[in-house]
Amino acid sequence: MKYFAHHGNGHRYTARHMFNFICRKRLGMAWAEIGRIIHRDHSTAINSVKEFSNILYTDKEIQRQYAKVCVLLNDALE
Question: pTM of this prediction?
Answer without folding.
Answer: 0.81
